[in-house]
Structure formats: structure tokens, C-alpha cells
Input
Amino acid sequence: MKALVYDGPGRRSWTDHADPELTAPTDAIVRVDAVTICGTDLHILKGDVPEVERGRILGHEAVGTIVETGSAVTTVKAGDKVLVSCISACGRCEYCRQAAYGQCLGGGGWILGHTTDGVQAEYARVPFADTSAYVLPSGVSDESALMLADIVPTSYEVGVRNGGVKPGDTVVIVGAGPIGLAAITNAQLFSPSTIIVVDREPARLDAAKSFGADLMVQPGDAGAAVAEASGGLGADVAIEAVGIPETFELCTKLVRPGGHVANVGVHGAPATLHLEQLWIKNVTITTGLVDTSSTPMLLRMLAAGRLDTSRFITHRFGLDEMDEAYDVFAHPQDSNALKVALFRG
Output
């Protein structure tokens, strides 16, 4: 088969690779029908995730068709159309019993495209298939479901839910990439009074407006905008959706006393925590890896027409156009790309 293989920082190739095989009775082999690229894949290519070894197949977001299952798999079968979650769950360990699948101790967590081969390939092995692959509801397309592999549950769980967004809140989202736009979509489920989005790129601020943000501002204007919208209090919830020190530190400046900073971005460098300013403000800061415990609920909402993922994908490719798709996704300032999707021909 063909697969997108990481060959060290700054190097990747769409190349021939051995077909995946069942290695445990809980595995399934999936024919990849649709796949996307994540900002985390770009972090890997920059060398920000040193656990990823050379030769690893990247990718952790896909929709596919089950072609083979191990002897212990009981909830999916050959022919089923499934969402392959970015998080794998053994289903047995202490964390999985708490639905904290991202912290799985039994060989799961974020492993696809990280510590085991991922899904940017024609076929993929899915560990713990019973608890890590979700049968698509009738009427849900590959393309719409694809956004539920990572960015929608991540922004919902790590940003909006963990941030405690409530009706009437002032919410500021720093970063209008795909995760930030997904945070707008999910925050709207809780009826905040104002959603303010901060980004440097005018095209991304335009996208934020189309997703329903109320105010779109440059970083230098964020403090004044948040103060005016909140009556001088600051943001009830500040969601960091970039993953660089400057954006995290900006969130800590924009949040009000008693407010919440929810860090969603993947960081590859240290950020300064200004406790000399924050210690007195009763601020809560949370970080986290998505657990995907919300995925079944989000799939139900998608099937019911209560969740719209149609606006995320701006560029579509065939699987064999993987290199071109990476180039487009990695340079949104030139392509205006949000998410790219690649489909089996």
C-alpha cells in the first residue's frame, strides 16, 4: 500500500509500505476512505514531538470500512463504515473506567501516528477496535464525520466543556485555525453572550465571522475588545487554540478574576506563567488531551442535524495527492485552507 511516512524533522514521503496486519485479537484492519491532516502532524514534522520515530506512518483522523477483525472484536464487523478516533482506549484500565481515554494505561491514548502507525495510508490497523472505532449513523457522510475524529471533540472537551462555558459568558478564543473555529461551533451550544476571536491572519478572522464569532480582533486590540465586551471584567473563559507561548500568555491577560483559561493548543516550547500577577486572581488553568468520551454524543448530534461540520473542509484531494494536501494545509496564509480532506478514488 501507499502511506505518508515521517522521516525525521522536516521530512515526509508518500511511499510504498507494507500492508498492516492484525497483531492482537482486539485489532481491526480498516480501508481508509477519508482522512485529514492535523496541526499536530505539522508539529511532528517540526520536531516538536520527539516520541515519533522515523519511519512512522502519520495521521490519527479517518473514516473507513472494516475489512478484517481480530477474534476478540465484537462491536464492529467487516463491511461496517466507522469513524477512527484519534484516541485509542483499552477499555479496562483505571483511566478508561473513568472515560479518561486519553490517559489510557493499557496501551491506548494518543498512539495512532504517534507511537504506532497511523491512518494517512490506504489501510490502517486500529487497536482496541471495540472501543476506538465508532459505526457511522445512517445518513452521515464520510466528510462530515471526519471532523469528529479529533478537532470537534477536542475543542468541545478540552476547550468549551473543561473551560466551563455557560450561558451569558464572554468567551475569547485565541487562534482561528481549525481548533479555534471548532471552539466557536461548540461554544455556541452553551449560549455565551459574546464570542471574541483573536488572530493575526485576516482570512482566518473572516472565517471566524462565518462560523458565528461576534468580534474578530488582532492580538494588539484584544485587551480593549474584551474589556469593552465584558464591562471591564475580562473574559469568563479564554480558550488557547494555537500552542505557542505568546498566545497562552495572552489568554492569562484576557481572563477575568475568577475566570478560566482552557489550553487546547499543542505546545512545543515553554511558556511563562506569570504567577506574580495571577496568584491573586482566582484563575483556573486547565490543559488536556482529548478523551473522545463525547464522540458518541457528537455523532448523534451530527445525525440529527444539530451539529454542522460542513464549513471546516476547504480543500479536497485524492489519497495519492497527500504531498500536495500537506503543502496546502501547512501554508494557510497562501491557500486560505482550514481543513483538507483526502478521499479514496
Remarks:
- The mean pLDDT is 97.
